[in-house]
Amino acid sequence: MGGVYCPTCEAGVEVTAKFCLSCGHDLTVQGPITATGHDLNQLKDVIRLRDDLSMAEKFDMIARVEDGADPIALGIAAAADDGDLPAEETAPAPMADDMAPALQAASWDNDAADAAVDLATEGSKLNDLKKAGSFEKEDKTFVEAMDLGRKATLEVLKVSQGLVLPANDALQTVPIMQPPNKSFCPKCGSDIHANTLLQWKKWSDTSTQVLTIQLEAAMRSSLMHLSASYRDKIQDLQDQLADAKKAVEKAKEEAAKAPKEEAPKAEEKKKTGKAAASKKAAPKKSSPAPAKPKSGGLFGAKKPKKTYEGEPGGKAEWFLEEALDTVYDPHGTGKTVKAAMILARSSEGNVRVRDVIRTYAVEGEEGISELAWTSPLTKYLIEAFDAC
User: Fold this and answer.
1) Rounded to an integer, what distance in angstroms lies between the CA atom of residue 9 and that of residue 234?
2) Is 25 helix (H, G, I), strand (E, B) or coil?
3) What SS3 class is residue 326?
4) What local confidence, expressed as pLDDT, does residue 197 receive?
5) What is d(CA 148, CA 151) in angstroms, rounded to the nearest whole number?
6) Which end of the chain is more exposed for a tag (fewer CB within 10 A), N or C?
7) Dist. CA 343–CA 381, nearest whole Å
8) pLDDT of 83 higher than 50
9) What is the Cα–Cα distance from 219 to 322, expressed in whole angstroms?
10) Domain contains 85
């Protein structure tokens, strides 16, 4: 590898190479440069035009320049400055408080981030829940979580810009993103450090604004997904708790009725003598059998009709609480379907009645899983939901 570099990416290149292996730059159009920023082809032309050198000396000087020798020290090129100019003042190092001002001032209400969330969740349950206002009451929690995310991002940025030392070994892997100390013109070798710093500052400010929007959109989408997942689990627990409370109330009612039925039997045991014996010997009259519920004929019992009159977004929960008795019962058992009733089982999880109703209310039949369709009751649930 010779001591010359690509004028575009400043990667080391072979003297005879036609293209840069790093960026693909065409070296036949614009040749390589030396470490001082001088054009190698121009230096060769200058050496060839010198009359005070023999042909052998010219070849030797060209070879030395190609191997990385300093053309300024050889007397065939001038420095970028004459050394008479005053030294430029060093730009003050950025403070941690001044870093990424757009990110630090973000209030998490950017319209662009909100539009990105809509595009990312388009056609999904999350977007429907978002439009229905399901996440509005959790906005405060989202903001607190995103503030923590911003704090973690700022810590990484501080390390990447060299403002603080890495707190642990993991942060030592963060690349240091600092502006270049020097930049030179590929043609004349003049120092363009000031312009480079200006462009760096513009790029850094713009990238921070884009980073802030990206962070808000990414964190909000993630929190919505996490919230929706726990929302379903919490609803499952609430449904199970409601079923348990109903079972406890039913058990209490049955326990309250039991002593009243046993009291006459205790009085009969106290009676003695022939009257009691004769009473025991007398044949016991059979109590009339309770009337059977009407089966409604061959196709099951008739179900009541109910109509939902509330807000559109609340029909699913109303149906699960108030109208499950309207589901068609093909066998005429008279048993009411429960919200926690399992329709189908698999290794990935169970499908319950509430899962089918909530999914159908938001996504329609396309959102219902294939596992749910294996149960014939799914069809009857949808029919009863539409009938309400």
Assistant:
1) 56
2) coil
3) helix
4) 66
5) 5
6) N
7) 11
8) no
9) 37
10) no
What is the total count of domains within the chain? Answer: 3
Residue 261 has pLDDT above 70, yes or no: no
State residue 88's pLDDT score. Answer: 44
The upper half-sphere exposure of residue 137, i.e. CA atoms within 13 Å in the direction of its Cβ, equals 5
91, part of any domain: no
Average pLDDT value for the chain: 76
Cβ-based neighbour number of residue 264 at 10 Å: 8
Residue 3 in tokens: 């001591």
* pLDDT for 67: 84
What domain range is 46 assigned to? 4-66
Are 154 and 25 contained in the same domain?
Answer: no
Give the chain's radius of gyration (CA, Å): 41
pLDDT at 89: 45
Domain boundary among 241, 274, 309: 241
Q: Is the pLDDT of residue 84 over 50?
A: no
Alpha-carbon span 122 to 168, nearest angstrom: 40
- Cα-Cα-Cα-Cα dihedral sign, residues 251, 256, 259, 261: negative
- Least confidently predicted of 150-159, 176-185, 250-259, 329-338: 176-185
> Pairing between strand 351-352 and 12-13?
unpaired
Determine the Cα–Cα distance for residues 362 and 378; give it in Å rounded to an integer: 16
Whether 52 and 123 map to the same domain: the answer is no
Residue range 302-352, pLDDT digits in tens: 567 888 887 767 788 888 888 888 888 777 677 778 888 888 888 777 888
Query: Are residues 115 and 220 located together in one domain of the fold?
Result: yes
DSSP state of 342: E
Examine the pLDDT at 117 and tell me if it is beyond 60. Answer: yes
Quick one: 59 and 110 in the same domain? no
- Alpha carbons 339 and 239: distance in angstroms, whole number: 7
Q: Which residues lie closer than 8 Å to 320 by C-beta, 6 or more apart?
A: 239, 339, 353, 354, 357
**The pLDDT of residue 278:** 52
**Apex 88 CA angle, 82 and 92, nearest 5:** 160
Q: Would the CA dihedral through 355, 357, 358, 362 be positive or negative?
A: positive
Which residue among 15, 47, 66 closes a domain? 66
Which has the higher per-residue pLDDT, 65 or 181?
65
Question: Could you tell me if 118 and 232 lie in one domain?
Answer: yes
Q: Are residues 113 and 232 in the same domain?
A: yes
Same domain assignment for residues 378 and 301: yes
